[in-house]
Amino acid sequence: MSYPLSFNDDFWDNGEDFKSEYPTSIKQALLSMEDWDKMIADLELPDDIYSVIEKIKETDTCTDYSTPVEVWIDEDGWWCLYIYDTTLHDFDQGPVPAHEHPNGGGWVANTAYVEKTAYVGPDAQICDFAQICDFAIIYGNAMVYGHAIVHDYAEIYDYAKIYDYAEVYGYAEVCGNAEVCDNAEVCGHVVISSDAKICGSASISGVTIIGH
């Protein structure tokens, strides 16, 4: 079963000109395509996003109206896009487009990046341009925001906050009310807890416990 594309202008371009795993418009979905070059070569289309949008308008086909909407680029449906609902969540700075991470259910801003292997618990929050990669675990009421990066097997939990350009990785743990910010780096088997704050250009590694 297929249906025509009877959607408003925001469905085509809602002004969100950044890549996302959960695109909320046709334009954003095209910007997020990993196989863009292969697609335009296969369909013999110009290397121009607006030309592809015109092609989609000509095809005028989706398979369902429920989210995510599967939109066909070509008439045979070999190339498709998936468009998600625009859901807003307030990360204490006003509502922004966001989604619930499939592994854990925590809220993730559409501007942030969280790999499917990472866990974000139901009360944890990831916003701004933060990145959670590999098998990192964020849970409790923890927050990761700014341009912070958490990866490898690092764990952030309780009320801990990672923000600015901070990076936490390895098997490091940040918990309690601890914060890691600025350009600080925490790695190895380090545990940062209680009310400890790691900031500036500090780099902590090895087997270290701070805050107990």
Can you describe what's shown?
The protein has helices at residues 9-12, 26-31, 36-43, 49-59, and strands spanning 69-72, 80-83, 87-90, 95-100, 107-109, 113-114, 119-120, 125-126, 131-132, 137-138, 143-144, 149-150, 155-156, 161-162, 167-168, 173-174, 179-180, 185-186, 191-192, 197-198, 203-204, 209-210. The protein has four helices and 22 strands. It is elongated, with a radius of gyration of 20 Å. It has 212 residues and is α/β, with parallel strands linked by helices. The strands form four sheets. Strands 3-4-5-8-11-14-17-20 form an eight-stranded mixed beta sheet, with no helix packed on it. Strands 6-9-12-15-18-21 form a six-stranded parallel beta sheet, with no helix packed on it. The protein has a six-stranded parallel beta sheet with strand order 7-10-13-16-19-22, with no helix packed on it. β1 and β2 (80-83) form a beta hairpin.
Low-confidence stretches: none
**What pattern of helices and strands is seen along the backbone?**
HHHHEEEEEEEEEEEEEEEEEEEEEE
Mean pLDDT equals 92
Can you name the CATH architecture of the largest domain?
3 Solenoid
State the share of residues found in helices, binned by percent: 10-25%
What is the count of distinct domains? 2
Radius of gyration: 20 Å
Secondary structure elements and pairings:
Blueprint: H1 9-12, H2 26-31, H3 36-43, H4 49-59, E1 69-72, E2 80-83, E3 87-90, E4 95-100, E5 107-109, E6 113-114, E7 119-120, E8 125-126, E9 131-132, E10 137-138, E11 143-144, E12 149-150, E13 155-156, E14 161-162, E15 167-168, E16 173-174, E17 179-180, E18 185-186, E19 191-192, E20 197-198, E21 203-204, E22 209-210
Parallel strand pairs: 5-8, 6-9, 7-10, 8-11, 9-12, 10-13, 11-14, 12-15, 13-16, 14-17, 15-18, 16-19, 17-20, 18-21, 19-22
Antiparallel strand pairs: 1-2, 3-4, 4-5
